[in-house]
Design a protein that fits this description.
Order of helices and strands: EEHHHHHHHHHHH
Distance between the termini: 41 Å
Number of strands: 2
Strand content: under 5%
Structural class: mainly alpha
Length: 316
């Protein structure tokens, strides 16, 4: 399969020295950020924002592009679906259109703030931006870190916020229609997986992905495994949304929020634990304790709040 031509081809080059955390410029000067659509209101605007910053990251060989490239494939399919006369079987296409824009905003803002070296509030996104920026992970890990942060942390918060603040309040019938469309998205994801695997192998030269796909009959097994992971993640997200909607007290609601933050951070931690685990297998001391919480993981500790002068200097 040929990957989508909508984004520039980028061959991953090896850096001899690690970059500074969330480096935003090199000999070519700073990455232009002020004309990117960071706050899309629908699926088409989401795709526009993704493609613009994606092209600039790929031009700098910045591995933070990898997840955005995966995300753009999915968003492109959503845009195509919404343009169909029957909206692909969606019951509430306008809801999904708006939700797609709002959902994309979370990922776009996380990448933007990492490029500005601003503190990110969640461990999941600190992993998903720090590790690719430092080239500490392989392309498939960069993709999974972004996908996990976006689904396991952002998705439930965005869906809950949308439903909880509608006026008039969402009734059981409307919630059932939203649920139908939410899970219909699984079919969009399923259709995107082959292109995403090819993207990792061909555009980003992911050695692990290429070797895995060379195994006879491995592709359908890999595709099913990835899809099953996404199904499990998205099912848990919907259950968390319902739990937040049904919470009777602020404490009950906050308990769900904390569970989401902890789970998404732990998944990111597991995705980045291979180096420590490998050293342990070899009988060597790991570089850090695997018992640390995601918030304490080396390299992704929240930075001190930036002053207004610092922010203005980095944004210029």
């Amino acid at each position: 399969m040929t990957v989508s031509p909508a984004t520039p081809s980028a061959h991953r080059k090896q850096r001899s020295q690690p970059v500074h955390l969330h480096e935003t410029q090199d000999a070519q000067g700073p990455i232009q950020l002020d004309d990117v659509l960071w706050n899309p209101v629908d699926a088409e605007e989401a795709l526009e924002g993704l493609e613009k910053i994606l092209g600039r990251l790929n031009a700098r060989n910045d591995s933070r592009a990898i997840f955005l490239d995966i995300y753009a494939i999915v968003t492109r399919r959503v845009v195509q679906l919404l343009k169909r006369p029957d909206a692909g079987g969606l019951l509430e296409p306008e809801w999904l259109d708006h939700l797609t824009g709002r959902f994309a905003e979370e990922a776009l803002i996380a990448v933007r703030d990492s490029l500005k070296n601003l503190p990110l509030p969640t461990a999941a996104w600190r992993f998903a931006t720090h590790y690719p920026a430092q080239r500490l992970t392989q392309p498939y890990q960069d993709a999974l870190l972004g996908v996990s942060a976006h689904i396991n942390h952002d998705l439930g918060m965005v869906v809950y916020d949308n439903i909880a603040h509608q006026s008039p309040p969402v009734d059981a019938r409307r919630l059932a229609r939203y649920r139908h469309d939410y899970f219909l998205v699984n079919e969009i994801l399923r259709s995107c997986i082959p292109e995403c695997l090819d993207l990792l192998a061909e555009r980003y030269q992911c050695t692990s992905t290429k070797l895995l796909l060379l195994v006879p009959f491995s592709r359908p097994v890999v595709e099913r495994a990835v899809m099953q992971m996404l199904i499990v993640w998205r099912q848990r997200v919907w259950e968390n949304v319902v739990a937040m909607l049904e919470a009777q007290t602020p404490e009950e609601h906050q308990a769900v929020v904390e569970r989401v933050r902890t789970t998404s951070g732990r998944i990111a931690q597991a995705l980045c634990a291979d180096k420590a685990l490998w050293r342990t297998v070899l009988g060597k001391a790991p570089p850090f304790s695997l018992t640390l919480s995601p918030e304490e993981w080396p390299g992704v500790v929240v930075a001190p709040p930036a002053t207004d002068a610092d922010v203005s200097a980095r944004a210029s």
